[in-house]
Amino acid sequence: MKLNFSLLFIAFNLLLGFSQNIDMYLGTFTDGDSEGIYKLQFDTIQGTISNTKLIAKAESPSFLAFSPDRNFLYATCRESNGIISAFKIKSNDTLELLNSVDSHGGSPCHVAVNNLGTKLVVSNYGGGTIALYDINKDGSLTEALQVFKQSTDEQASHAHSAQFIDNNLFVADLGRNSVFKYQQSDIGDGYKLKTESIVSMQPKAGPRHFTVTKDHKFFYIINELNSTVTVAKHTNKGFKLVEHISTLDDDFKGESYCADIHLSPDEQFLYGSNRGENSIVVFKRHHATGKLKKIQNISIEGDWPRNFTIDPTGNFLLVGNRRTNNISIFSINKRTGKLKFSNSFNAPSPVCLLF
User: Fold this and answer.
1) pLDDT value at position 7?
2) What's this model's pTM, rounded to 2 decimal places?
3) DSSP-assigned states of every residue in 6-55
4) Which candidate, 312, 300, 314, places its Cα nearest to that of 350?
5) 152: which strand partners?
6) Closest by alpha carbon to 141, among 154, 130, 132?
C-alpha cells in the first residue's frame, strides 16, 4: 500500500508539473450579466477553464484583437453608437484604458491589426463603413485616417470583418454580398478600392468572416445568410472561384446563420460555426486544390455559437455560446480533424475568445 501511495503521489505531482495554464481573453455583450472584458485561465493539458476575472468595464466589447507584441488589446464597443478602445495589458491582471476613438459607424463588430502593429481597421455593421487608424508607439489610436463608405443607392452595406494581407486590405461585406479588396496607395499610406468583389458570390450569401492559408493562396469565406463556405484561389491573374459548399448537416431543415471560421494549425482541416443548427462543421481540406469535404457536424452543447477559437497547442477548440452563457470545449483529433465534446464552462454572454 505504501508503494502504491508513493507512485500515485509521484504521478500526481508529475501531472501538475506538466499542466500549463495560459491566458484567454473574453469579449462579451453587456445586455445581461456581463460587465465588460474578462480574463480566464485555460489548462492546455486538461482542457479546462478557471479563474474568471473582470479586467475592464466596457459597453459590449464584442470583438477583441491583440497588437503583434501582445502588449496592447483593442476592443469594439457599442458606447456612443460605436467606439474602438485601446488598452495596455498590465502585469497585475488589469487593462489600462489608453484612449477611445469614434468607429465612424454603428455597431462595430470586428477589429484587426496589421503585422507591423502600425495600423488598425474596424468594421461597422451599422452604416456599413470601414475605418482605418494609425497606432501610436504607446499603443493608443489616432483619429480615423480613412473611412470607406461601401453602401450604394441599391444596396446597404453591412461590413462584418476585415483583414490586412500583404499590402492589401480585404473586407467581407454581408450587405453588399462581396469581399472587397483595397490596395495600399502609391501615394501616402492609405488604401484605395481595387476590386468590388474578389469572386462572384451566390445570391444572398452574406459574407461574414474569412480565413486564409499561410501562403495566402486560398481564401475561405463563411457566409451567414445561406450557410455556405466560398473557396477562392489567389492566382497571378486575380482570384478564381473554386467552390461553394454547405456548412449544414444534410438532414437539417431549420433556419441557421453562420458566424466564424478557422483553419487548423496544419491547415488540413477547416471549422465553421452554425447558429440555429447550433453546431461546428468540420471539413477535410485538399492541400493542392483547396476543395473541402464535409466530415462532421457536431452539437456545440449550447445555443447561438458566435465566435470560436483553437488553443495554441491545436488540441482543443473552444466555442462561445451567447444565449446559454457557456463556453463549450472540444478535444481535436489531429489525425482525423474531428471533434469530441469535453466539458462546458459558465461565462457571461461570450461572443469573442482570444488567446
Assistant:
1) 52
2) 0.94
3) HHHHHHHHHHHHH--EEEEEEEE--SSS--EEEEEEEETTTTEEEEEEEE
4) 300
5) none
6) 132
